[in-house]
Amino acid sequence: MFPRRSLPTIARLVRFNGSSSHIIATRLPTQQLESEAPAPLTEEEFSSMIIHGRSLYPPSYHPRTHSVPVAQLQFRAYHHRFLELYMHLVGHAAAALGIPISRPVYLPTQRSLWTVPRGPFVHKKSQENFERKVHKRAIKAWDADPEVVDRWVRYISRHAMPGVGLRVTQWKRAPPGIGQQMVDAAVGSTRLDSSADNVKALAKKIVQQEL
């Protein structure tokens, strides 16, 4: 939900009468505006708003309702500019779908160094150093339907940026009574409800097959 901002409207009527001009300004009463509390924007209203250049602005972050984690995304890239641009896309996609997510978390940068000889013969004592940095980011999502999270992950995977790796970890809740269903399935597979007559008949059948 987003707060609706209302400003007092000013209607100006300009009349030109010869060389003199008269400007008449009428304002709405401020007491009426202050008494009426602004209604919060719904998700449908916010998504349907036409904002020119919406993708140039930072994404909007929805507040958490129950703080139940549903997914965690980790990003890796060699170039941090590609990583920041892809995180911008992921944030806007989550805002459009109404998924409460965290802001990008900066993980420690992995740094690797190599020392390689320049040549095997003449330049054997001359060495060259190489460095590689892997930049990492993380985003966590809460309080969203599993189908919405799956659609979000499919969208950002389909529009993945080259050079950026993505790893998704999702947590799905089992329905109530799943434990009893598993116990019933295990009991049914062990044949604990078979009677003594059935066991004797099965034993006789096995003996006849063996003889």
| Share of helical residues | 25-40%
Summarize the biggest pleated sheet: 4 strands, antiparallel
Please provide the count of β strands.
6
- The proportion of residues in beta strands is 25-35%
Helix and strand string, N-terminal first? EEHHEHEEHEHH
Class by SSE composition = alpha+beta
Q: What can you tell me about this protein's structure?
A:
- The chain is α+β, with helices and mostly antiparallel strands.
- The chain has helices at about 30-35, 45-50, 80-95, 145-160, 180-190, 195-210, and strands at about 10-15, 20-25, 70-75, 105-115, 125-140, 165-170.
- Strand 1 and strand 2 (about 20-25) form a beta hairpin.
- The longest helix is centred in the middle third of the chain and has 18 residues, at about 80-95.
- It starts with 9 loop residues before the first strand and ends with a helix.
- Residues about 1-35 have low confidence and may be disordered.
Write the layout of secondary structure elements.
Elements: E1 10-17, E2 20-27, H1 30-35, H2 43-48, E3 69-77, H3 80-97, E4 105-117, E5 127-142, H4 146-158, E6 164-170, H5 178-190, H6 196-210
Antiparallel strand pairs: 1-2, 3-5, 3-6, 4-5
Helix pairs in contact: 3-4
